[in-house]
Amino acid sequence: MDQEKTPQQSVPPGELEHLEQILRMVNEELEEAQRSVDKMDDEYKEAQQYIADSHGEGDPKEMFQTRMLMGQIDNRGASAVVYRDRLKKTKSSPYFARIDFAPQDEAESAAYYIGLYAFRFQQQLYVIDWRSPVASMFYDFELGPAFYDAPQGHTEGRLTLKRQFKIVNGEIEYAFDSSQNIQDDILQQELAHTSDEKMKSIISTIQKEQNQIIRNEKAKVLIIQGVAGSGKTSIALHRVAFLLYRFRNTIKAQNVTIISPNKVFGDYIAGVLPEGKEAAIRRLMQRGKVAMVGDGINDAPALTRADTGIAIGAGADVAIDAADVVLMNSSLLDVPAAIRLSRATLRNIHENLFWAFFYNAIGIPLAAGVFIPLGLTLNPMFGAAAMSLSSFCVVSNALRLNLFKLRDNRHDHKRTNHLNDIKEEQTMEKTLEIKGMMCPHCEATVRTALEAMPQVQAAQVSHESGTAVVTLTAPVEDDTLRRTVEDKGYTVTAIR
Predict the structure, then answer these.
(1) Is the dihedral of CA 332, 419, 471, 196 positive or negative?
(2) What pLDDT is attached to residue 219?
(3) pTM higher than 0.85, yes or no?
(4) Rounded to whole angstroms, how far apart are CA atoms 484 and 478?
(5) Residue 424 pLDDT greater than 60, yes or no
(6) DSSP states of 294-343
């Protein structure tokens, strides 16, 4: 592929200035969104307090109107929270690609920046959604003639620029200028720059054939067939996301059903995107060394993140390139065999180093004449023979690995506390009993406040039961959780 990597210092100044402009607008919009959320939160609490103070003795019409008002505030507040959270994600990485497109019979090209979400500021569109018709040209065409189909009609023209960005925490790490379709080697470049943030979605590395499947609007039934690790499940989920965007006025998330053979497969579906697997590996690495076994494109980020990445020989090329070890027989039974062989090899190296050090610690001073006052000398002929003997012993000890039994598990390391460690990690939960939540808007407010804490992995909040179940990655004092919730105007009655 004809492409070029551009480090940050060589990114065109226009791109840096454009990113700064976008970030200024995102920050301004984010501040306004936060004010809107806070305002609706205050209005809801006032209405809630009015009902509480009335004790059911107020005018029935006023009470009814107040409850209707609370419902309206709740709906607007939930939308405002979603919009605010989306802006927070946009702030970190506003877009991942740019295309310049000149419609037919027009000399000037217009620049389109493509992101995970569309971004508007003061009624002007600055970033288009990756699912929009215009964005499809980024995946489908090389530089030159191109077209897209939108509800308004068919538009033809020319692509004059295709550029892909890696933006992390509001800074451009690098950019690709490409004249061809995005292929797997871009993903390999992505994996070559491992960092502590979560890996981004494979949206930015969708290939032309995959894009055609995702955006197909004519076929009522689609069957996706491919080899192991080709990304079939990811394509299916991205197609769901596209259809929800394209037909957002008629299709809702509630209309989508995923049928899986068992719960294990369902859990796999839930974590199929690369950033989910990579995040899970990072959490496990906090407890010790981690090995990851994978075979697909989506496994590559996790294989790179793990201390040891193990790829299946029949898997995707990207996974093989990202791994440290490749199982050529494509059998998972070779994983423990590879671990046994690595331990035996390391043990053999330690033995050779020990005996070489012991041998030379005695032989070198003896050959140098250090022990002549004690009457100990070494004939040069014997010294030469001793050196040869040293090399012979080291090689012979290394050759013992040929006799090593890879399938013998009698000497495997036993980890009696492994299951206890997993159980402890899985049961690190606290349940808060909260008074004052009356609607989904209250749930969203409490959940957002709790999940903003660095030790909180997830929070399940229910206004019906009046509880919040918090999953923790590190210990947190009860008083800290209590203050976090009560700062939002709710009362924590118990923590267990």
Answers:
(1) negative
(2) 80
(3) no
(4) 10
(5) no
(6) E-SGGGHHHHHHSSEEEEETTS-HHHHHH-SEEETT--TTHHHHHHHHHH
